[in-house]
Write a structure and sequence with these properties.
Layout: E1 8-14, E2 18-24, H1 28-32, E3 35-36, H2 46-57, E4 63-69, E5 72-80, E6 96-104, H3 113-122, E7 131-136, H4 143-146, H5 150-162, E8 167-169, H6 174-177, E9 183-188, H7 194-204
Parallel strand pairs: 3-5, 6-7
Antiparallel strand pairs: 1-2, 2-4, 4-5, 5-6, 7-9, 8-9
Length: 211
């Protein structure tokens, strides 16, 4: 399986003549030299999360897109194979990859960094030979920090994913079906073979009568 990784970088000017850098996929050795913003603690302590990001960046299929100011990471998006304990790994698909964590430090929200990082990941057809999916669960959302209700947050996430042409897909996955705000978003690359699409359908639905 070819994992296309073409490093790209964008620079964004913000107030007080400061500059933010969006870049990736990042080499793990370079990533190791950066520091994590203290607010990036949604999943684990920043230091532990930094180690996890370095590990993801070093995987053959792994991608780490970051936003940083100087050497300080202020946001990131991860791409990797689904966890072997989850149903999405059941098809043993080399061309199925998960858009995993998305996190931006509180003080840097409002610059559209999440959208810019995701768009950079998909730039230059790097992922056109992959099925990329993300599972959105409301219990992972920062409802308190954003002051959004669950439905407004859902709309925000859908808009974010649609910026790279990811679409809502049906599934009978129990976790996603456990709340109507949860959803599965998917983009099938134009180079993905039909047999992979059919295999993904079998993973999405265990109850065959549903599709």
């Amino acid at each position: 399986m070819e994992h296309r990784k073409k490093f790209q970088q964008q620079r964004i000017a913000i107030q007080d003549d400061r500059e933010l850098i969006i870049e990736g996929p990042i080499d793990p050795n370079i990533l190791r030299s950066y520091e994590m913003h203290s607010d990036l603690d949604a999943f684990r302590r920043p230091r532990d999360q930094h180690e996890a990001l370095v590990e993801i960046a070093g995987l053959p299929e792994g991608r780490l897109i970051s936003a940083r100011e100087g050497n300080l990471i202020i946001g990131y998006v991860t791409f990797h194979y689904p966890d072997e304990m989850e149903r999405w790994s059941e098809g043993n698909m080399a061309d199925l990859i998960e858009l995993g964590a998305i996190e931006v430090a509180d003080d840097y929200r409002g610059y559209g960094l999440g959208k810019k990082m995701i768009q950079l990941a998909f730039a230059d057809e790097q992922l056109e030979n992959m099925i990329v999916f993300t599972t959105e669960y409301y219990w992972h959302w920062d409802l308190e920090g954003t002051k959004l209700n669950v439905w407004d947050y859902r709309r925000m996430m859908e808009k974010l994913m649609k910026s790279v042409e990811m679409e809502w897909f049906a599934t009978d996955d129990p976790e996603i079906c456990s709340h109507p705000a949860n959803c599965l978003m998917v983009k099938i690359g134009k180079e993905v073979p039909l047999q992979s699409v059919e295999q993904f359908d079998r993973v999405r639905f265990r109850r065959r009568f549903m599709y």
